[in-house]
Amino acid sequence: MPSVQHETMIDLFRQRPELAAELLALVPDRLDSPLPEYTHARMDSGDFPDITPTEYRADAVVVLTSEASTPDTAVIIEVQLRHDKDKAWSWPVYLTTLRARLRCPTVLMVLCPDKTSAAKSRTPITIAPRCTLEPIVISPEEVPVITDPATASANPELMVLSAIAHSRHPDRATILDTFATSMLTTPDRAMYLELVTAILPKAARNILETLMNTKYEYKTEFARTYFSEGEAQGEARGEARGEANALLRILRKRGLRIPEDVAARIESETDLDQLNTWLDRAIDADTVDAVFAD
Predict the structure, then answer these.
(1) What does pTM read for this prediction?
(2) What span, in angstroms and rounded, lies between the C-alpha atoms of 6 and 242?
(3) 67 vs 64: CA distance, rounded Å
(4) Are 17 and 155 in contact (CB under 8 A)?
(5) Angle at the Cα of 39 (from 155 to 23), degrees rounded to 5?
(6) Would you tell me the crossing angle of helices 202-215 and 172-183 to the nearest 10 degrees?
(7) With 0-12 CB in 10 A as exposed, 13-18 as middle and 19+ as buried, what is 262?
(8) Which of 104, 217, 236, 275 is the most exposed place for a label (fewest CB within 10 A)?
(9) 52-84 burial by CB neighbour count: b if 16+ within 10 A, else e?
(10) What is the average per-residue pLDDT within 128-141?
């Protein structure tokens, strides 16, 4: 089941697809050529159903497009919290299948929370003679230390990554203070605060709680809502996403076609009881409609 930390990372790209290009811009030496100028970034399907019977599904896909909406570059985003030897076999499939589907250059970007997982994820993958895949890995070392309020307000998603990546940094108090200040004017502050506090280690979480208590009115109520309950809410949210992913996986394994609106309904559902009811039905339902029958 996907963890809260895993889902937090993916949420940032759902909120701001441009973040994929911004992170790649931090490591230009790892690209064969500079990213092309783009006018728009959008999320795309991370499913690769062309390969059967095994299901291949990336964590997220961002497509950078031109004014004519023509795909210029596709970025596959994978969050790798620990080493998984099977990725050496699935990652090349992601790249080649997406490249064939969109007919544009593709990039594999792997986000890792520590040096160990980053080092293992950087290992080149030999696909064939003279054909090697080298994942572009973003570890805490590549994530900028953001202490400038203007930068944080302009890009709250990158600020979230900075707060998580540098939770043990010597300047973490300043980083967290910048994060707390930026949340004052961020429309999605409730979600970001919930996600970050669910991930931060206890010492950093206490620092952030103290900072937020000095910046918001109704301090006691805020602390109770986003700190006392925030971790539990974050875990529940991650659990619901895990159940939704399991349901989609079962339906696909059984060969049932899932319309886009149905997939969206499943992914947006947060009621665990409802998701469990659908999961039970999915085991032997003859059609997708039968799963959602009243």
Answers:
(1) 0.66
(2) 11
(3) 10
(4) no
(5) 40
(6) 40
(7) middle
(8) 217
(9) eeeebbbbbbbbbbeeeeebbbbbbbbbbeeee
(10) 91
pLDDT-based confidence at residue 237 (cuts at 50, 70, 90) = low
Chain-wide mean pLDDT for the chain? 83
Dist. CA 23–CA 20, nearest whole Å: 5
Enumerate the β-bridge partners of residue 79.
111
Contact criterion met (CB below 8 Å) for 112 and 139:
yes
Residue where the block lists tokens 């059984």: 254
- DSSP class per residue in 234-248: HHHHHHHHHHHHHHH
C-alpha 142/C-alpha 139 separation (Å) is 5
Q: Residue 59's closest CA among 90, 35, 83?
A: 90
Confidence of residue 118 (pLDDT cuts 50, 70, 90): very high
Cβ contact 125:79 at 8 Å: no
| DSSP 8-class letter at 54 | S
Joined together, the tokens standing for residue 168 give: 């043990």
Is the predicted pLDDT of residue 220 greater than 50, yes or no? Answer: no
Cis peptide before 53 (omega within 30 of 0): yes
**What is the token pair recorded at 196?**
């970050």
**With 60 as the cut, is the pLDDT of residue 234 above it?**
no
Instruction: Pick the closest to residue 9 from 199, 180, 145 (CA basis).
Output: 199
With beta carbons less than 8 A apart as the criterion, state whether 271 and 238 touch: no
pLDDT in tens, 122-133: 999 999 888 999
pLDDT, residue 233, reads 54
Distance (Å, whole) CA 241 – CA 139:
24
User: If you count them, how many residues does the chain have?
Assistant: 294
Phi, psi at 185, each rounded to 5°:
-120, 10
The answer, yes or no, to whether residue 221 has pLDDT greater than 60, is no
How far, in Å, CA of 104 to CA of 94, rounded?
13
Bond preceding residue 170 cis, omega within 30 of 0:
no
